[in-house]
TrEMBL record:
InterPro entries, per the entry: Cyclic_Pdiesterase
Single annotated GO MF: ligase activity
Origin organism lineage: Archaea, Methanobacteriati, Methanobacteriota, Stenosarchaea group, Halobacteria
Protein name, UniProt field: 2',5' RNA ligase family
SUPFAM superfamilies: LigT-like (SSF55144)
Record keywords: Ligase
């Protein structure tokens, strides 16, 4: 599976590191932090890359902002709860809708169900999730000027697309 990801700034990784004492009780704390814009299942890479280049033609850079810590009590996939950094970005929401219209939406996690976020940890107790979510943070703002095509089978970026595309 591939995904189109928004690279997050180093400040987000530092924030996640600062939160690690609160994430230690979870089954899995993320060491790689990403912001997924759109997932692509059952697609060949070269074809996807060309389709994305066409779909993203003229796509301007946009703003994003980490606002607070939240959790999904019952995520549609995987172990619960999922603790995450909430991201506000009208530009990202618009881009996601455009790509979901063009490529289709994965039920339960995309389209109207899409929640922009950076996963911190999953598989702990609700009490632990509440403890992390209660931590204050200063918002982190950045301009998204690049998107990465991520290959989950190799766990690496397969291509990058600069914005404006």
């Amino acid at each position: 599976m591939y995904s189109l990801n928004v690279p997050v700034p180093g400040r987000v990784a530092r924030l996640a590191s600062d939160l690690f004492p609160y994430l230690a009780p979870f089954d899995r704390a993320r060491d790689r932090h990403t912001l997924v814009c759109k997932r692509f299942e059952d697609v060949e890479f070269d074809r996807l890359r060309e389709q994305l280049r066409r779909a993203l033609a003229g796509q301007p850079a946009f703003e994003a902002r980490v606002t607070d810590i939240r959790f999904f009590e019952e995520p549609p996939r995987g172990a619960a709860p999922v603790v995450y950094l909430a991201v506000e970005s009208p530009g990202l929401l618009d881009l996601h809708r455009t790509l979901a219209d063009e490529f289709g939406a994965i039920e339960g996690i995309e389209g109207d169900d899409y929640v922009p976020h950076v996963t911190l940890a999953r598989g702990g107790s609700l009490a632990d999730a509440r403890a992390v979510a209660s931590q204050p943070l200063d918002p982190i703002e950045w301009t998204v000027s690049q998107l990465d095509v991520y290959d989950s089978s190799f766990r690496e970026t397969a291509a990058s697309i600069s914005l404006p595309a």
